[in-house]
Write a structure and sequence with these properties.
Order of helices and strands: HEHHHHHEH
Shape: globular
Oligomer: single chain
Strand content: under 5%
Number of strands: 2
Strand order of the largest sheet: 1-2
Length: 167
């Protein structure tokens, strides 16, 4: 039997204000989970990946460094980045486990606040971004776009209670 994809909202954030408005709606009005993460986990995870180009990426394990090198040199990483920028993130892609906060250790309120603070940092940042070990260098505009797509992917698995009541 084929595994079915969980229900997911199709989100298209134009900017950080759109994203944070959705986050506030989920936080204040409640939500249903159609995936395994809480709002706090999703916000904490997205904030962590927003931070890496500012503060530095974690060093990938040795086998992954080889895979990333291969993907960069063959153009696979560039094609993957272009696909993400065009279509957004898809489910089932692995992530670094250290970037997924434990639900018992990061409340929804803490995760929302962490994301809010990171948005402020990214908006105020005017330095050179640190290159991704997989995708290489990116400018601030691309970093913001990737962050919005990443947030839309994870927050799409959370359904606001208010929209369910209207349906």
């Amino acid at each position: 039997m084929a595994k079915t994809e969980p229900q997911k909202r199709q989100l298209n954030y134009k900017n950080f204000d759109d994203m944070m408005a959705d986050v506030r709606t989920l936080h204040s009005g409640g939500y249903s989970r159609h995936g395994s993460w809480t709002l706090g986990q999703a916000c904490g995870h997205v904030a962590e990946w927003m931070r890496f180009p500012l503060d530095g990426f974690p060093k990938p394990p040795l086998p992954m460094r080889g895979i990333f090198w291969f993907m960069r040199t063959t153009g696979m990483a560039k094609r993957m980045a272009n696909k993400i920028l065009a279509e957004g993130f898809t489910g089932g892609m692995p992530t670094a486990p250290d970037t997924v906060p434990d639900a018992e250790q990061l409340t929804d309120e803490q995760g929302v606040e962490r994301l809010r603070q990171m948005v402020e940092r990214v908006q105020a940042f005017d330095g050179e971004l640190i290159s991704s070990p997989l995708f290489g260098p990116m400018d601030k505009e691309t970093h913001v776009k990737v962050s919005l797509l990443h947030a839309a992917h994870h927050l799409g698995y959370l359904e606001p209670k208010t929209s369910q009541a209207e349906a």
